[in-house]
Write a structure and sequence with these properties.
The protein is about 35% helix and about 25% strand. It has about 240 residues and is of the alpha+beta class. A hairpin with a 5-residue loop joins strand 3 and strand 4. The structure holds adenosine-5'-diphosphate and magnesium ion (MG). Magnesium ion binds near residues 35, 157 and 158.
Length: about 240
Amino acid sequence: MILRLPSIKKLKAFSLEPGTIVSEKYEIINLLGRGWEGEVYLIRELSTGIERTAKFFFPERNVRDKNLRSYARKLHNLRNCPIVIHYHTRDVVNIQGHKISFLVSEYVEGELLSTFLQRQPGGRLSPFAATHLLYALATGIRCVHGLGEYHGDLHTDNIIVQRFGLEFELKLLDMFYRGSTRKEYMHDDLIDLIHVYREALGGAKYYSRQSEAVKYICCGLRRGLILKKFRSVRHLCHHLETMHM
Ligand SMILES: Nc1ncnc2c1ncn2[C@@H]1O[C@H](COP(=O)(O)OP(=O)(O)O)[C@@H](O)[C@H]1O
Ligand SMILES: [Mg+2]
C-alpha cells in the first residue's frame, strides 16, 4: 500500500490532540494560538511536570529551520530583558510524515493584549492607563534595542499581559527576523509602539477627542513626525518619564 503524505506546502495545521506525546519528552496539553508561522501549544515536560510552550513551525515558513534558529538566537541574546520570553530548547517531531521542528520556551500565563483591550469598557483604556502600558512596552523595547536587537513584529497579538494593577507586567513574543539589526528596524519598533498606544486608546474613532499630551506622542501616526520628536525608544521613555498628563 502506498501512503500518500500531505505535501509540505499543504501542512498548515498540525491540530495536535491533548495527551499526544511528542519526542518522548513532552505531553500536549492544549492549543494556545495559531499564527502566520505556526501553532503554539501548552505542553508539559514529562520528566519534571513543568509546563512550557512549544511553537511548531509550518515547514513552508521555516525553510532549513532558518526562522526557528533566528528566533531562538534572538531570545537567547535577550535573556536578560525581563519583557522577553525565555528560550529553552529546540526539538523535532514527526507529524504526518514530515519532520517538524519546534521551539520550547517558558509558558506565560496571562492574556493577549488584544483580548485584554476588548474586555475593557468601550474596548479602550483611559489615557492614564494607556500611557502606563506604553511606558511598560517602551522600557522593555529599550532593553531589546540596548542589546543591539529589534523585535520586528510588535502588535497586540504578540504581547501578553501577565498582570495589570498599578502598572503593567508584560511579555513579548514572536520576534521577526529580517536580517541583522538596522536603525530602520529599531525605528519600525518605535512606530509600532505608538500604533499600539493609539489602539489602546480606542483607535481612530476617539483620536480627535484625545488630550494634547496624547496627540503630542501619537503625532497623528505620521512616521516622519514621530521620528523627529523621538529619535529612539530611549527618547520616548525619557519623554514619558517627564511629561504632564
Ligand atoms: N510563551 C507563550 N505563552 C503563552 N501563549 C503563547 C506563548 N507563545 C505564543 N502564545 C500564543 O500563541 C499565539 C501564536 O504564537 P506566535 O509566537 O505569535 O506565533 P505566530 O508567529 O504564528 O504568530 C500567540 O498569539 C499567543 O496567543
Ligand atoms: Mg504572532
